[in-house]
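Note to self: the last two entries modelled the partners one at a time, which told us nothing about the interface. This time every component goes in together.
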Amino acid sequence: MGRPPCFDKIGIKKGPWTPEEDITLVSYIQEHGPGNWRSVPINTGLMRCSKSCRLRWTNYLRPGIKRGNFTDHEEKMIIHLQALLGNRWAAIASYLPQRTDNDIKNFWNTHLKKKLNKQQTGTEEGLEKEGHSKSSHEKGQWERRLQTDIQMAKQALSDALSLQKPNHILPDTNPSDSHHLTFDTKPNHASSPYASSCENIARLLENWTKSPKLTDTNSGYSFNNNMVTTGSSSSEGALSTTNACTPDHGFDSLMTFNSFKSDGSVEENNNFTTRVGLFQDERRPNLETQVPLTLLEKWLFDDGAVQCHEDLMNMSLEESTASLF
DNA sequence: AACTTTGCCAACCGCCACATT
DNA sequence: AAATGTGGCGGTTGGCAAAGT
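The predicted structure of the combined assembly is written out below.
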């Protein structure tokens, strides 16, 4: 409220990140874990604001990020999640742990939106008046939003009333964020809140150390594998859990990413999970609320679940909303 | 080859919610 | 209770590269 953007501060650097900055940031996070972003520029000497550091980390440096083309499955997931959730990219991204909300948003804006528009104009031509289809679409979005907000409110109430608190850490879920709904049947990434293939960072370091040419802040350098993977190397148990609930074979490099403190202990950083694992630790005791979402989950994580998909899409909102109460 | 247009994506910006003072 | 600080989200933009002319 009235707070000037951090970017306006004198001496704050803007624009693309340099490899040196990336390394500094990664090294710091490797040691201290993500979170407490305010202290990051102070302790590292980076001439970046905390927000910029966080964004750089979450959107690019964070281990486990998959880059490059989206698979068909990912594309379908995004399309249907967007239809269901609207432009809640963080929520959508929670279903695609290897993709950042920024990536998904970009993909949507640059590819899917056009694609769907094209398809829509093709199929609707001569069938429906434009105004009608638009208004019904908007109505659908509004209803879906309402539905998810109802879900959220109910979950919050149920959590508050529950004598048996779920054995999970609430801060992970950012319960205050009214834009987020919670899914009971969320695939369980809980034990691996942070996907970590280390590939991105490893690539960064590798190229960077080999080639001093630093024209491309995104792909022209890479981190030395050893340097970055020390400490975040492996958590196979978590890996199996993650794979078990993610049918997308692209997820096979998922590992947990715990930050390692300087004393060698592992720190489970809760802030770390808020994006990728937004819903991961949330549980919903009320079975009746599961119905529509179970269908969603089933479809999302089963490529062949055509019937399930149809059921989901055909399900009336009134029906699913009524079941909440 | 030179110029223009288009597409992509990392980063910025503004806003919001919550925590803290 | 109000002001301030922080983290997070979604919309938008600027710069670069590829494609087109």
